[in-house]
C-alpha cells in the first residue's frame, strides 16, 4: 500500500499527467542522444530535455506528497533549483571541452568551426 489509492481524483489526474509528460520528455531526450549523428547534435537532446522532464517529475512528486501529507512539501524546489542551475552549465562545459579537443586534434568539419568563432591554426 503506497497511498496512491487514497489520493483524491483531483490530485491523482495531474500527478499522473505530469509523470507521463516528464517520462515522455526524458525518453525523447534519450532517443535524441541515440539517434543524432554528431556529438554536437547529440548533446542537445539530454541538455535541453533534462530540465523540462525532471521539472515535470518533481512537480508531480511535490503535488503527490503535499496532498498525501496535508501540508506543503517543498523539498523538490531545492532539487529543481539545483538542476536549473547546473544542467545548462554542465552541458556548456562539455560542449566547450569537445570544441577544444577538436581544435587540438585539428579536426575539420567536426562542428567546432561553425559560426567562425574558433579558427584552426595553419600547419606549416
Automatic annotation (TrEMBL):
<keyword id="KW-0812">Transmembrane</keyword>
<feature type="transmembrane region" description="Helical">
    <location>
        <begin position="12"/>
        <end position="34"/>
    </location>
</feature>
<dbReference type="InterPro" id="IPR005133">
    <property type="entry name" value="PhaG_MnhG_YufB"/>
</dbReference>
<keyword id="KW-0472">Membrane</keyword>
<dbReference type="Pfam" id="PF03334">
    <property type="entry name" value="PhaG_MnhG_YufB"/>
</dbReference>
<feature type="transmembrane region" description="Helical">
    <location>
        <begin position="46"/>
        <end position="65"/>
    </location>
</feature>
<feature type="transmembrane region" description="Helical">
    <location>
        <begin position="77"/>
        <end position="99"/>
    </location>
</feature>
<keyword id="KW-1133">Transmembrane helix</keyword>
<protein>
    <submittedName>
        <fullName>Monovalent cation/H(+) antiporter subunit G</fullName>
    </submittedName>
</protein>
